[in-house]
Amino acid sequence: MASGVKPRVKVPKKAAAGETITIKTLISHKMESGQRKDKEGNIIPRSIINRFTCEFNGELVVDVTLEPAISTNPYFQFEANVPESGDFVFTWYDDDGSVYDTRKSIEVA
Amino acid sequence: MELSRRETLALGLGAAVLALVPFRANAAAEDAIAAFTGGADMADGGVTLTAPEIAENGNTVPIEVSAPGATSILIVAAGNPEPGVATFNFGPLAAEQAASTRIRLAGTQDVVAVAKMADSSFAKASATVKVTIGGCGG
User: Fold this and answer.
1) In 10 A of CB B34, how many CB atoms?
2) What angle do CA B75, B58, A64 make, to 5 degrees?
3) Which residues contact B137 (CB under 8 A, 6 or more apart)?
4) Is A33's CB within 8 Å of B77's CB?
5) Which residues in chain B are contacts of A21 at CB distance < 8 A?
6) B78 neighbors B42 (Cβ within 8 angstroms)
7) Nearest of B60, B72, B62, B75 to residue B126 by alpha carbon
8) pLDDT digits (tens, 9 = 90+) for B58-114
9) Cβ of residue A11 closer than 8 Å to a chain B Cβ
10) How far is CA B71 from the centre of its chain?
11) Could you tell me the CA-to-CA distances from A88 to A2, A62, A64, B88, B94 in Å, in that order?
């Protein structure tokens, strides 16, 4: 189990209808690649986040499959359309079965 | 063991072939791409892959992909021990089929982005990144 996993997401609080907004997400996670060795030469087992999704009011914005080549503290930036006010749901799926999620609401004027 | 002239030549030829294929991982990368495209032809253009020319630290190399009209984008780093990097699938609310992230690179190599378009054609772009310090630990 990776410890100290903390998702952080930046979404504007307000937007105009149909506007394109930029979303930035980061989650603190070691993303152990399974390639590194410890002092005794044993391979440190892989422990990464393997999937990230972002949904808005139940509709998919982006779904990312992550491999060990994604850096520590995986960061993503992408663009989304917001047709109406609602909630963004961000979900990260860990190799160990844990699921981390966070939501952000946005008001569309 | 004594080598005959023929065997020596064969060995030399084998070494030359190995030298032409710098990383065995290249084949793995091609397999990964083939699994994504199903062996379909890839057009050049239509995808933009932005990566630094020189990355000081292979542990975090910022990259950006953009492919207007794509449904998904596969990113492959041919010189890594495992070539797969990430696959982006875009949903109906994605305003642009673009994303940026940070990746690990084991050494100087080509990073390849393959986009699957809405009409299930494929497009490809690649960028060479020089890495000063590799990002695979060990």
Assistant:
1) 11
2) 30
3) A33, A35, A36, A37
4) no
5) 95
6) no
7) B75
8) 899 999 999 998 999 999 998 888 889 999 999 999 999 999 999 999 999 999 999
9) no
10) 19
11) 25, 11, 16, 18, 12
